[in-house]
Amino acid sequence: MNEFYVPIGGVNIAYVVASVLFILGLKGLTHPRTAVRGNMLGATGMLVAAVATLLKVGLDYRVIIAGVAVGSIIGAFAALKVQMTGMPQMVAIFNGFGGIASVLVAGATLLPRLGTYTGGTQDLQELVSIGAAALIGGVTFTGSLVAFCKLQEVLISTGNVTFPGQKVFNALLVLVAIGSAAWLAYDPSQPQPFWILTGASFLLGIGLVLPIGGADMPVVIALLNSYSGLAAAATGFVINNNVLIISGSLVGASGLILTQIMCKAMNRSLTNVLFGVLGPTGDSASADEVYAGKVKATSPEEVAMLFDGARRVVIVPGYGMAVAQAQHAAQELADVLTENGTDVRFVIHPVA
User: Fold this and answer.
1) DSSP 111
2) Three-class SS state of 268
3) Which end of the chain is less crowded, N or C, counting CB atoms within 10 A of the terminal residue's CB?
4) Considering only CA atoms, which of 22, 13, 79 is closest in space to residue 47?
C-alpha cells in the first residue's frame, strides 16, 4: 500500500490547477491553430488530477500500474490504427467506456454499503448520485455501442431501426429507471433497485439510438459525449471528488452546446435528438421543402470561370471530403487560387 499521502489542502490546490488546465484546454480546442495545444493542456490537467487523487487515497500501485499499462496499450493501438474517417466511431466507443466506468463506480460504492445507510442528508445525496450515475452511464454505454456498430456497419443496420410501440417502450423504460432510482434512495437495504435501474438504462440507451440513421450519428455522438460528462459529474458526487465534478460538468455543458450547434448546421431538432427521433425540423417537411432554393447544380467549367473572377473563396471541408480523401485536391486548388491573388480561407463545418 502507498504510505505517502498529500495533505488535503495540497490535493485541492492540485484540483484547482487541473480545473484551470481543463478550461484552457477547451478554449484551445475552439480553433484549429490552438487545438493541439488545447489537447495537451487538457491531458496535463488529467495527469495532475489523477496523480493528486492517487496520492490522497493511497492505493496499491501494482494494480494502478497494471491498469495504466493495459489502457495505454489499447489506447495507443487504437489511435495509431484508426483512420480519420473512422474517428467518429472511436469517439463513440470511448464515450461508452466512460459511461460503463460510471456505472461500475456507482455499483462498487453502493453494494458494500447496503443496509448501512442511516437516512441522513449525506446518505441521500450519495444515493441520488449513485442513481444518476447508473442511469446516465448506462444510457451512454449501450447508446455508444449502438452508434459504434452503426458507423462501423457491423451487427446493426446503418438505417433507422424501428418497431411498433418503440416510443411507448422507451417511455416505460424512463419511468422504470426513475422509479428504481427513487426506490433505491428510499430503501437502500437491497440490491434489486440498482440492478433494475442498470438494466433499464442499458435498454434505454439502445432504444434511443436504434431509430437514428447513420448519417445523423455525429450529432448523437456529441450528445452521448455530453451524457458521459454528466455521468462523470454524478460519479464525482458519489466519491466526493471535486475535480471529477468540475471536469464532468465542463464536458456535459460543452457537449450539449456542440450538439445544439450541429443540430442547427444539419437542420435538425435538439428535442428530437434527446428523445431518439432525429429527423428534419418539422415532421411533415419533405426534402424538397427543406432544400428548395438552396442547392444549385453546376459544372467544372462554370466553377473554373467563377474562380477566375473571384476575389475571395471559402472552402468548407466536411465528412464527405474526408471519405473521398479529397483534401489534397482541395489544397492544390487553394494553392492555385492563392497564386492568382485570390484570398482562400478554410472554414470547418460544425459537424466535421
Assistant:
1) G
2) strand
3) N
4) 22
